[in-house]
């Protein structure tokens, strides 16, 4: 059992009684420890900690949850990783209260760096080519520019009523996808084609319909491999792969244009052009139509505000909204497949309660807690902090390791079990989710910069899951699923799902 109070490097006990102390306030009479004193793997000049990840190193072959758990157990709730090859120093937080401290304090103008190579492409490469737009996009802008973009999109994407209006359209996509799945099964009721690609088609079709207002026809069996839709999916995958190498792994691209860096610049260019093509076609069509507000797509609503902004935002929605939702959906299917009692309970609800479905929401939430699509979130500090008794300087990258925190016993009892009920039980039940620190699980991020696609993602997943559960008994064959951590978490093949007719 992993208990927050058992961390050997800390004198602070805050969690086992479900009371959370503000550690910064507790220790104000003691001198702050320095940046250098923050525990972490010893680093070497220039290369930082890379040697630990090489054969024989203490972190060799560790990744994802296992890496986080190793760091937490070895160094405690705050771990420093030195930047390598000109990259920034990073602090990893496994402590919910300190995460809250950073996320709340940075909420005024939150800076989430992350996709540095994409930012370089949009702010340096593109501008050298003559693009002079004030904005570069939701993901890569910060400060005033980001705030302006965000305030244009917030009312469209975050109001439950405007998202609910897409229910029927999403259901149509879900039903089409179920029909496609039926026709793609072999004699053992397994999907003959690559399952992850199939789910990506569903996710792209859904987001395409909402963002652009058109059916992309991703489910067309005659879709050529070099069609724009397939190209887009391939490019989004590739985008995450190159961003992982350049931005989240040691890379010297800041000093020398590596092969991957060159590939990335070309890919970002191709991806933006492809997105622009999709969007241009839609914009032209929309100019000839005049729909009532509640039937308009996100792009249509944004065009009413500002056409250039509309194109930028729709482009970011397309690539941030495909892999995230698709992979989450695969994790949900898997957890329901290996927990047939939960699946049957869900089916009961889906078949009998069309209007109110709390259990489906709980199944999705619990899957995201147990198998999140992203392991953490990021903020750059805009000032100094006192975290857990250490001085954290300005301009440091802080990673909020929410995957690890959401699997801590002190927050969620029986943390490695799939128990959707924990999101529904009363206060006096020990499983009650409200006993956890509110920042222990923050899959969609936090505050002003939190995921703009959250409500849409939730609705997409609910609608599709209901249709799948109504039609199929999902089973999983053989060894447990394997997950590969990249910028987002992916399932490694084989996809041993069985979709039997109910
Ligand atoms: C299960 C699905 C999803 C998960 C877990 C997820 C998670 C996240 C997280 C953690 C962030 C960072 C938030 C922060 O910094 O506090 C984020 C940002 C973002 N997400 Fe999502 N997301 C999902 C689906 C989507 C979808 C469907 C879309 C598009 C419709 C989308 C578009 C975006 C965009 C554009 C941002 C950047 C927002 C900004 O910086 O202002 N996401 N997402």
From TrEMBL:
**Any one GO molecular-function label of the UniProt entry:** iron ion binding
Q: Which cofactor does it need?
A: heme
What Pfam families does the database record attribute to this sequence? p450
Query: InterPro entries recorded for this chain?
Result: CYP11_CYP27_families, Cyt_P450, Cyt_P450_CS, Cyt_P450_E_grp-I, Cyt_P450_sf
| Entry annotated with the keyword Nucleotide-binding | no
Give UniProt keywords alphabetically. Coiled coil, Heme, Iron, Metal-binding, Monooxygenase, Oxidoreductase
Chain coiled-coil ranges: 167-194
Positions of heme binding: 451
Identify the domain of life: Eukaryota
The Swiss-Prot or TrEMBL record describes its family as follows:
Belongs to the cytochrome P450 family.
Protein name per the record? Cytochrome P450 CYP12A2-like
């Amino acid at each position: 059992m992993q208990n927050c109070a058992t961390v050997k490097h800390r004198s602070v006990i805050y969690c086992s009684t479900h009371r959370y102390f503000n550690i910064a306030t507790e220790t104000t009479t003691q001198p702050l420890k320095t940046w250098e004193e923050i525990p972490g793997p010893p680093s070497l000049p220039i290369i930082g900690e890379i040697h630990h990840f090489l054969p024989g190193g203490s972190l060799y072959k560790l990744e994802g949850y296992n890496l986080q758990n190793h760091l937490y157990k070895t160094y405690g709730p705050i771990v420093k990783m030195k930047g390598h090859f000109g990259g920034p120093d990073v602090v990893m937080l496994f402590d919910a209260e300190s995460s809250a401290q950073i996320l709340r304090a940075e909420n005024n103008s939150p800076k989430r760096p992350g996709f540095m190579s994409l930012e370089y492409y949009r702010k340096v490469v593109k501008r050298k080519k003559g693009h002079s737009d004030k904005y570069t996009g939701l993901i890569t802008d910060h400060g005033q520019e980001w705030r302006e973009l965000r305030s244009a999109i917030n009312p469209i994407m975050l109001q439950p009523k405007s998202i609910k209006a897409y229910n029927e359209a999403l259901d149509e996509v879900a039903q089409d996808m179920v029909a496609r799945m039926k026709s793609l099964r072999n004699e053992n009721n397994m999907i003959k084609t690559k399952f992850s690609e199939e789910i990506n088609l569903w996710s792209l079709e859904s987001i395409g319909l909402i963002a652009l207002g058109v059916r992309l026809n991703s489910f067309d069996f005659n879709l050529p491999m070099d069609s724009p839709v397939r190209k887009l999916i391939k490019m989004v995958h590739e985008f995450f792969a190159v961003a992982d190498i350049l931005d989240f792994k040691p890379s010297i691209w800041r000093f020398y244009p590596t092969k991957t860096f060159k590939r990335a610049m070309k890919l970002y260019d191709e991806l933006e052009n492809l997105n622009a093509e999709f969007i241009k076609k839609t914009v032209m069509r929309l100019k000839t139509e005049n729909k009532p507000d509640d039937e308009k797509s996100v792009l249509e609503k944004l065009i009413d505000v500002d056409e250039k902004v509309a194109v930028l935002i729709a482009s970011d929605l397309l690539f941030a909204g495909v892999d995230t939702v698709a992979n989450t959906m695969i994790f949900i299917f898997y957890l329901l497949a290996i927990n047939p009692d939960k699946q049957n309970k869900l089916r009961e609800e889906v078949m009998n309660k069309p209007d109110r479905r709390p259990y489906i929401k709980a199944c999705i939430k619990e899957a995201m807690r147990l198998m999140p699509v992203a392991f953490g979130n990021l903020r750059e500090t805009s000032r100094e902090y006192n975290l857990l008794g250490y001085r954290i300087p300005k301009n440091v990258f802080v990673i909020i390791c929410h995957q690890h925190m959401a699997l801590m016993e002190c927050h969620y009892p029986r943390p490695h079990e799939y128990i959707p009920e924990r999101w529904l039980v009363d206060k006096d039940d020990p499983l009650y989710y409200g006993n956890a620190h509110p920042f222990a699980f923050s899959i969609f991020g936090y505050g002003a910069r939190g995921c703009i696609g959250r409500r849409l993602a939730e609705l997409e997943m609910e609608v599709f899951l209901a249709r799948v559960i109504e039609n199929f008994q999902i089973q999983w064959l053989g060894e447990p699923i394997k997950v590969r951590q990249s910028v987002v978490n992916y399932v490694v093949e084989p996809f041993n799902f069985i979709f039997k007719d109910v």
